[in-house]
Specification:
This protein is α+β, with helices and mostly antiparallel strands. The chain is about 30% helix and about 35% strand. It has an 8-stranded mixed sheet with strand order 1-2-3-4-5-6-8-7, with helices on both faces. The N and C termini lie close together (about 5 Å). About 35% of the residues are buried.
Length: about 190
């Protein structure tokens, strides 16, 4: 999945080096909102930090360990959606995402995750996908709940964000439980 059209206004694209400036600008504009949930935000202080992140993500992509995507809405960078910690031998991976606040409430992440699930299960041959979200981040938790993931438990004080620990809700979806047992359509390029 190098790109995937979600609708006439939205698409997923592979993260690229030339996205560094736009991604840093989006991160910086949403810093206050994102820092509540994502510990890496305070470590991202310049476009060079974002460029280093992208280089690492693309190295992981080349090794088959992750699929780093960007979310676009009306030709503007809206956020990221990543399949990471890919373990082909065990047929598992984890999904992570974030959006700028101006792009929330449009179903971008829900539709993007749905497309990524279909790609992971039907193109990559994976069997189990996970999503972890802060127990207090109700918008983020709504995504796996809406898509039929099972809440498997609460990981107590799993991460530190700022100066405090956060509990994470762990959701998982098995291929056999995915209600779309076949890809809906082949919109866009995979």
């Amino acid at each position: 999945m190098l790109s995937h059209v979600l609708d006439e206004h939205a698409e997923l694209r592979l993260l690229q080096l030339h996205h560094a400036e736009a991604l840093f600008t989006l991160t910086d504009a949403n810093r206050k909102h994102l820092r509540r949930w994502l510990g890496w935000v305070d470590d991202t202080t310049s476009p060079y930090d974002t460029l280093d992140f992208i280089r690492g993500a693309l190295e992981g992509f080349a090794r088959g360990e992750q699929l780093p995507l960007t979310v676009w809405y009306r030709k503007k960078l809206a956020g990221t959606l990543t399949l990471f910690d890919i373990k082909p031998r065990h047929r598992t991976a984890e999904i992570g995402y974030w959006l700028g606040t101006a792009f929330e409430g449009r179903g971008l992440i829900t539709r993007g995750v749905e497309a990524l699930i279909n790609h992971a299960f039907f193109e990559m041959g994976l069997n189990r996908l996970k999503i972890r979200a802060s127990t207090q981040n109700h918008k983020s938790r709504a995504i796996p709940e809406r898509l039929g993931f099972t809440l498997e438990g609460i990981l107590r004080q799993e991460i530190w964000v700022g100066d405090r620990p956060q509990d994470l809700a762990l959701y998982a979806l098995l291929k056999q439980d995915w209600p779309m047992q076949k890809p809906r359509s082949k919109r866009g390029r995979s």
